[in-house]
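Q: I'm teaching a short session on how sequence maps to structure, and I want students to see two examples side by side rather than one. Could you give me a first protein with its sequence written out and its structure tokens following it? Keep the formatting plain so it prints cleanly on a handout.
A: Of course. Example one:
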Amino acid sequence: MAQVELVARRGKIEAHIGKETILFKSRGAESEAGYWPVECLLAALGSCFAGTVFAYAQTKNFPLEEVVARINGELGSSPSRVQKIEMEVELIGNLTHEEKERIIKAGERGCTVMNTLRGGVEEIATKLSY
């Protein structure tokens, strides 16, 4: 199970992930330090996809050296959400076009974040803690 603890104070939002702290900005925060949450969502997608394709390439002994992903999210409204995501992926290494296509397809099948975004989350439960 993945777990993050978030602490929001006036002007500051922190996410604690393991021993790391990531600062976020928000319309309700007084500081511009940190990242917009949607930027982190897109980064999570890209990093999950890149890790998945590297793992696949390794199992197939494909000489994948680097993955460059450029990810754009188009915002929608009512309700507020990311309505469209486009990810342009560059695979660097001595790979054939067929190998690159296989690697991309494996990434699309195996990326947990992509699968979650495509399928939706079955349940998000919010409960008050005392």
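Q: Perfect. Now a second example for contrast.
A: Example two:
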Amino acid sequence: MKHLYIKSRKEAAEETLILFHGTGGRETDLLDVATTVNNEANILSFRGDVDENGQTRFFKRLSLKTYDEQSLKEEADKIYDELKKLSAEYNFDLAKAVIIGYSNGANIAAYLMLNYELGVKGAMLMHSAYRSETIGKGMLFDTEVLLTAGAQDTTATAGESYTLKKMLENKGANVSVKLTDGGHEISPMELMEGHVWYMPIKKSIRDEDKLL
């Protein structure tokens, strides 16, 4: 699986942001989002392996609103293995990492959060339209999740974000939803919400380091 890793310019930076682009995207798409959320973090960004009519995705669909569950699991297994391998290769701690996903990337990230024991600190999922009922047994206690949605978004509705909120909360995650007036695009307001939401997470990570 193609990926991009950018080590922080700050020496011994502990925070890492893991990025998953939207349909038709690539591993560089969310770099501006990442630097707005935390410009001192390490960055690991993935490119989806699935091609849908010339557009890059993280898993196949049977229709616009129906996931290919077999593809979803196969691709998620692959990403999970890559995360474990790359965290060792690049020497970063998943417990101090936050996932950022947009659209299709937010959906694969949600599947990973709900079905695998990643141990990440949290996730910022933008414009997710999560439509899988598969849920693993692990819990998400002490995991922070921000869901952003556009009131005018017909591709991934605000209602779908609130449905995902309930699924994550049922597994113990601390979830908040922020709505904008926009559509499916990422708005400047979302970036600011992400930055503000991330600030106490960064403080928590750095406070933990001081205790070691």
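Q: What should students look for in example two?
A: Point them to this: Residues 188-211 form the longest helix (24 residues). Also worth mentioning: The mean pLDDT is 96.
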